[in-house]
Write a structure and sequence with these properties.
By secondary structure, this protein is of the alpha/beta class. It folds into two domains: 114 residues, Bordetella uptake gene, domain 1 (D-Maltodextrin-Binding Protein, domain 2), CATH 3.40.190; 84 residues, D-Maltodextrin-Binding Protein, domain 2 (3-Layer(aba) Sandwich). It is built from seven helices and nine strands, in the order βββαβαβααβαβαβαβ. The strands form two sheets. Strands 1, 2, 3, 4, 5, 6 and 9 form a seven-stranded mixed sheet that branches. The longest helix has 17 residues. The protein is elongated and about 65 Å long. The two termini are 24 Å apart.
């Protein structure tokens, strides 16, 4: 069963390193790498696959997708920031990039200085999904189940600072319930464990535009 809640839509934004010395006349003249900040199986990876072909047609070059998960997308951002500033590395990220700058104390890059924004790629919504055998069958039953004395529901999320993590924190604060957060290296691994019943609830994202 799936419990939905209307709250903020995720804005997935693409960022690229400054073109620097690359000549605008012949750019691009070789394949472009798109670093996706989360592993396969989540909405970020799905978004990259959807825009890959249109980008290839528009640029006349191959777009090579490279999934790098971990630390709420900060590992991927770090790699993109350290790439040559020639316009051949694109980072597909989400609000987790901004959140990560505040949540993680040690940075090897500056998101404001090291990236140049291209624009909005899509919007997405989050739903809260439950493991198949969870006793609750509707929101009222879910709230009662989560508020049972001594219970701390296990909540899987795509990584600290990710949209799924931040969204679920806001939701459960509003519900007034205690939870145990279980971070994963992306939405795909989190979903696998949710379906296996290893966590009780987890955020599921879907592209809407």
């Amino acid at each position: 069963m799936t419990f939905t809640r209307a709250f903020a839509a995720a804005l997935l934004a693409a960022c690229t390193l400054a073109i620097g010395s690359a000549s605008a006349d012949d750019y691009p003249n070789r394949p472009v790498t798109m670093i996706v900040a989360f592993p396969p199986g989540g909405v970020d990876d799905a978004t990259a696959r959807m825009i890959q072909e249109p980008l290839q047609k528009a640029l006349g070059q191959t777009i090579v997708i490279q999934n790098i998960g971990g630390a709420g997308g900060m590992i991927a951002a770090d790699k993109a920031a350290k790439a040559d500033p020639d316009g051949y590395t694109i980072l597909l990220h989400q609000p987790a990039l901004a959140a990560g700058m505040a949540l993680y104390p040690n940075h090897t890059f500056d998101a404001e200085k090291d990236f140049v924004p291209i624009g909005l790629v899509n919007t997405a919504i989050n739903t809260i999904a439950a493991r198949p055998d969870l006793p609750a069958k509707n929101f009222k039953e879910l709230l009662a189940w989560m508020k049972a004395p001594g219970r701390s529901a296990k909540i899987g999320h795509p990584g600290v600072g990710s949209f799924g993590h931040l969204g679920e924190v806001l939701v459960f604060q509003e519900m007034g319930v205690k939870v145990t957060q279980v971070p994963y290296r992306g939405a795909g691994p989190a979903l696998v464990d949710l379906l296996a019943g290893n966590v009780d609830l987890g955020p599921i994202s879907a592209v809407v535009a």
